[in-house]
Amino acid sequence: MGTETKTTRLKPPDKRGCSSGMMLAVAACIFVVASVPGMGQEPKPDPAGLNTGDKTTVVDAGGNAFVITEPADKTAPDYAQKKKDFDEFQAQAAKEPLALKLADATGHIRVATNFAWTLNTGYLVLFMQAGFALLTCGLVRKKNAGHLMMLNFAAYVFAFVAYYAVGYAFQFGAVAVNAAPGNLGGTPTLNHFLLGSGFWGFLGGKGFFMVGPAYDVGSNVYALFEVVFMETAGYIIVGAICERISFWSFLLCELFIGAILYPFFGCWVWGGGWMSQLGNTMGLGHGYVDFAGSTVVHAVGGFCAMALSVILGPRLGKFGRDGKPRAFPAHNLVYVVTGTFILLFGWMGFNPGSTLGATDLRISVVAINTNLAAISGAATAMLFWYWKFGKPDVTMACNGMLAGLVAITAPCAFVGPTAAFIIGILAGLVVCLGVLFNDNVTKIDDPCGAISVHGFCGVLGAICLGLFADGTYGAGWNGVGATTYLGQAGRGVTGLLYGDRKQFLVQVMGAILCAAWAFGATFIVFKMVNALKPMRVSAEVEEEGLDVPEFGLSGYPEDAISVTAS
Amino acid sequence: MKKIEAIIQPHKLDEVKEALIGIGVEGITISEVRGHGRQKGHIETYRGTEYKVDLLPKVKLEMFVSDARAEQIIGALGTAARSGKIGDGKIFVSTIDDAVRIRNGDRGEAAL
User: Mutate which of B49, B52, B54 to disrupt the A interface (most A C-beta within 10 Å)?
Assistant: First the structure.
């Protein structure tokens, strides 16, 4: 019953007493045990939604379960107490059958509330796609506007195809083993690692093509919410590779991200895989923690983009013969700012939604933290540019806002408002320096700043979690310290500044591994692709603008007869 | 007959038009153009990299007028387009040999 004591990225914050010690994956486990007669049989999926959410999913505000399960381990030191609690519950239940029926209804409503929350926040995340399309289109030259829109559109479609076929199964096919989303009923049917097992899972193995065990209401809520996160990593690369990548190779990139690059790392951190369990296996804090995806989503996208940009090389004329960068000014600032605000709005789903439930009241803290980091990141970037170049640059201010958002994404649930504001400031500085660094030192051409915003600030976010997490949230996270942590009952994920050096260590190592995985895997695969057939369009096409040569239609057809602006 | 061409600041167009209509000018052709004069544009930065804005938007006016009216129109145009700053533009005057009204074949000043 190893599954029962472990928990998930998205478990409710419980300051449980010993009687509620198993709440986290309890729902999942009970489903497994209760919904099928006899052990060893597979749990049945629930496509109609008639069996998801009953008295076993009822918890109080502190995360204590209503149903007390029979303790299994007779050698545990608190066995006697747990057995007594169980016996008392049984006696009470026998006396008051109506209370059990009421609890069944309450449990159903709890899960339904969380379904509504998770689906709706997922729709907000989906809308970020529109924001990113506007942002990146506005930042490039007019002659490539249609190309940018097509890339953003195709990213959603083709990455989704790959994720539907295999990505979801790779990432979450074993989520019930170590990280059952209790708020959504636990998805007990997704319980098999393709590679690895127990605490050392490397790849999920159930739910291919979202049929069979994944044809289940709980799993489908999860799938919708998670696919739009994958899409975020999918469109991030557009910002760095645009204005020169051919469409066929872009489609390969999207299939690669949706099927391999994103799901692998996502499984390790969110699917109950080995990185999330490093607290159990190596005593490293609560394992590697990333609440909503500074690394799992953004750094994966950012460093994948970096590798692709290196392979493609800079746009023609971006660097002069003396090596100095040249400016290709944004063609539409209206799109840039509108797109940025749509992204901010969507992030209100991205971060608070990652609780997977409105019954986790920490959502309000997450929402405020997310906004604070956004405004401090934007203010920092704007003022830095004002000071350094004499005029504030609105495109950099927008990058600063997104940088703050990316950096707060991992720590948003574990830190307080002051830390969130500071994290935004750090991100605002990192993104400014990152853009200047790429332009002047590495000479990696990144038209929209995607590498700096998502790559560099993604890594920053995971490290900031290891610094600023204040221990108020996440007790029992990843099955670590369910009742007491660092000598304190109810203590959650804790950073270096609050006394947990090991959490800081695992955050730094995990963030570096993320960057190495995303850059390395992308570089190897697409270096080979590029050797077989060059991924870049011809110089003539690039000079003309990619709209017509690639798609036969200019983004602004009325300009077709006028001089192409460069 | 004279041809008067003027390259002016776009934001001065309304004032110039009013001034010309005010003194009875009947036909004007304008076009939006880009260019630079002696100042040769200015330097800006975009995301930390300098770039030159050297072809600035301007408006070009063309009028064909009788010799007798030319000086008055040049004076009114110059006054209305002037802000006193660099970039106000220039007026060019040239002599025209003939003109034809396509509708009825009028020639010379009668065609204006």
Answer: B49
